[in-house]
Structure formats: structure tokens, C-alpha cells
Design brief:
single chain, 176 residues, mainly alpha, Four Helix Bundle (Hemerythrin (Met), subunit A), two-stranded antiparallel ribbon, 64% helix
Length: 176
């Protein structure tokens, strides 16, 4: 099970970085664009979490937590399972309004519980080779390739959110 723990550790690192990025931010800071073509911290964390929810739920053969746990209501959005922010233009991303940072963290942590269950109780070497269709990209790839994409996107988006925080607040968000 060592390789599963390595994969899980990467997801846990993303979650830890999400918490650091959001620490102490209020609504205006979550929804502030550094310029009109930039994503907000709130949108980036929401999109990252929606992507993880959608992708892991699809791989696990479960309905998204966005729907079953009614997270959409906490975000004042529709229960559309396809609404993940993928393909949003600058205007759509700029119109997004994040709720309190605690809600962003709580949703991310709920999705992380599903990720942990999938990785530790379902993911096997055989599962890694299974063909998995992605409705987002309209293609079929192996579960392994899809997981790598999910993790890569998560790292990119939390890094982008950290960068936006740095633009808004300066250095020091990780105690450095």
C-alpha cells in the first residue's frame, strides 16, 4: 500500500496548502481580482475542489458531494454536476462570489474524505490501468493518467491562489 499513501500524501499536501492560502482572508479578499483578467482566490479554490469532487466521484462511481451533501446551496449556485468552472471566461470567473473561507475549507475537506476512501479502499494497480472516460475533456484515459491530471491541476490551482494572495497581502502566508 506504500504507493497509495504516496498519492494520498499529495492530496493531503494540496489540502494543507489550501488552508494556508485561505487563513485569515475575508470575503472581499477571497473575491478580489488582481486585474480584470485574473481569477480570484475564492474561485481558484472552489474550482480546484469542484474538479476533485467531480473527478474522484466519477472514478469511484459515486454521485458528487456537490449534489448529495448540497454544497451547491452553501455556495448559492445550482446543483449542476457539470458546473466546475472549467471553461469559465474572465467575466464568469470574476462574477463568482465565494462564501466564507470556512465553507471553502469544509467543502475541500469533505472531498478529501472521499479521495482518501477511494485511494485506500478502491485504488489498486489493476484499477490504475482501467479505462476511464472524462466528460470534461471528452476522452478516455487510464485511471492513472486521470489521477495524475487531477493532482497536477490541484497543485497548479493552489499555487495560483497562493500567488494571488501574495499579490494582495504580500509575503508571509506560510510563516516565511
Amino acid at each position: 500500500m506504500a504507493w497509495q499513501h504516496c498519492i494520498l500524501d499529495l492530496f493531503l499536501r494540496i489540502e494543507q496548502d489550501v488552508q494556508h492560502v485561505l487563513d485569515g482572508l475575508h470575503g472581499d479578499e477571497l473575491n478580489r481580482q488582481p486585474n480584470p483578467d485574473s481569477n480570484t482566490i475564492g474561485w481558484l479554490v472552489w474550482h480546484l475542489t469542484r474538479s476533485h469532487d467531480r473527478n474522484i466521484s466519477e472514478l469511484a462511481g459515486q454521485e458528487q458531494l456537490w449534489i448529495t451533501a448540497r454544497w451547491y446551496a452553501k455556495f448559492s449556485l445550482s446543483p449542476d454536476p457539470d458546473e466546475t468552472g472549467f471553461g469559465h471566461n474572465a467575466e464568469e470567473a470574476g462574477a463568482f462570489r465565494a462564501p466564507d473561507g470556512r465553507i471553502l475549507i469544509a467543502y475541500h475537506q469533505a472531498v478529501l474524505v472521499r479521495i482518501r476512501q477511494y485511494i485506500l479502499h478502491t485504488l489498486s494497480e489493476g484499477e490504475l490501468e482501467r479505462a476511464a472516460y472524462s466528460p470534461t475533456f471528452r476522452n478516455t484515459v487510464t485511471v492513472q493518467r486521470r489521477l495524475v491530471g487531477i493532482m497536477s491541476e490541484g497543485l497548479q490551482h493552489v499555487g495560483q491562489a497562493a500567488y494571488v494572495r501574495g499579490l494582495l497581502k504580500g509575503h508571509g502566508w506560510l510563516g516565511r
